[in-house]
Amino acid sequence: MHVLVINCGSSSLKYQLINSDSEEVLAKGLCERIGIDGRLVYQKEGLDKEITEAAMPSHKEAIRMVLDALVNPKSGAVSALSEIDAVGHRVVHGGERFAASVLLTEEVLAQVEECNDLAPLHNPANLIGIRACQELMPGVPMVGVFDTAFHQTMPKKAYLYGLPYEYYEKYKVRRYGFHGTSHSFVSKRCAEFLNLDLKNSKIIVAHLGNGASISAVKDGECVDTSMGLTPLEGLVMGTRSGDIDPAIMEFIAKKEHLDIEGVMNVLNKKSGVEGISGVSSDFRDLEAAYNEGNQRAIDACEVFAYRVAKYIGAYVAAMNGVDAVAFTAGIGENTSFIRKKILAYLGYLGIQMDEAANAVRGEDKVISTADSKVTVCVIPTNEELAICRETVALVK
Ligand code: ADP
Are 115 and 95 in contact (CB under 8 A)? Predict the structure, then answer.
């Protein structure tokens, strides 16, 4: 089957066309600056990237351009749109309603819309992408794959906040968690790679990208994860604060004369390692500044690694043990010095890092020594492939 995977944001759209039998990516790219001016990046496997500037007033024009590029006689990946058998859409928030991927019917779309409240920046954009695809590809089955679904197995003690219970009842204020597609993919792949029985295993997945989250996966099911009602909770991220004392919000609002939107903007976009370092949210820049002795970059890296190590400790407690720790996403897959810093806190678990193996980038690899009590590995994530597999499972 040919599956088109779509990840639609408010002004951007990423896509991949995957042959689900060989799991080969036939073409991929993104549309940027939708609603502003418009730019299509298209790359067919084995060919150079093509960049086209063209007006994209809405997601519909963006998707039309993607489809045109995919069937272009010269550089296209298929000869006709009818060769695209299904579309898998990333949907950010599925609330409590969606604990698994689902075929997108009108009834389901109405339920997804009910979750808009919980992710006002993301879900409406996801829905616009779905609607645009439906219009341009009538009759092609569409599947929704939710970032929150994998975490729906969390027990109540892990997802309830210490808030008045009526907020949970009335507004569904609780912890949901995100990056679920990645946590699910990486925990399964980790078990397979290490020859663990997934149904009888304790795995901690550290998804460390620009957005970062960590999860405790026991017997194949998520029992806790660090993000909450929104992706702001948990680890210190590229530009997000992660956990803070909530009273800081009032304090900063008064000192800086900010309203609630202003404070939220600071916590989401001006905090994290960028906020601490004043250098960058990107660990390539941070590592360079760290090596030059930039004290704030050093502070940012130390805070980042320490927070991850504390969460790993918490999740060992949540599962009463751990068999494996898997690092994934941009930082988890590529940044050896951060992995080393995190693992340095975990000697008490009997974790021993293999220095040479830890130099790895972007491939499945064990980075702990043979006698380490807990196996530590790098497992590259592949959310698009995971969405493709979910889509095939529902469409076949
Ligand atoms: P997201 O999908 O949340 O945008 P990614 O998983 O792509 O994030 O991770 C992006 C981050 O990963 C970058 O900000 C950077 O800090 C880090 N990163 C990516 N590639 C490298 C690399 N080769 N070396 C060091 N850090 C990297």
Answer: yes
Residue 254's pLDDT is what? 98
* Angstrom distance (rounded) from CA 80 to CA 270: 45
Q: In what order do the strands lie in the sheet with 202-208?
A: 221-225, 212-218, 202-208, 324-328, 375-378, 365-366
Please report where in the chains the tokens 């820049």 appear, as a residue.
285
Ligand 1: nearest atom to the Cα of 238: 14
Q: Does the CA dihedral 109-113-119-120 come out positive or negative?
A: positive
Please state, for a pLDDT cut of 70, what percent of the chain lies above it.
100
282 CA distance to ligand 1 middle (Å): 7
Q: Is the CB of 272 under 6 A from ligand 1?
A: no
CA dist 256 → 243, 249, 251, 261, 264 (Å): 20, 10, 9, 13, 13
Give the global pTM: 0.95
Answer for the pair 377, 365: CB distance below 8 angstroms, yes or no: yes
Has 21 been annotated as catalytic?
no
Q: What pLDDT sits at residue 63?
A: 93
What are the pLDDT digits (tens) for 162-204?
Answer: 999 999 999 999 999 999 999 999 999 999 999 999 999 999 9
Task: Look up residue 6 and give its two tokens.
Answer: 């779509």
What pLDDT shows up at residue 10? 80
Nearest to 221 by CA among 156, 158, 150, 159: 150
Cβ(76) – ligand 1 distance below 6 Å: no
The reply to whether ligand 1 has any atom less than 6 angstroms from the CB of 329 is yes
Average pLDDT over residues 81-92: 96
Q: Which of 48, 147, 282, 299 is catalytic?
A: 147
Q: Answer whether 57's CB lies under 8 Å from 107's CB.
A: no
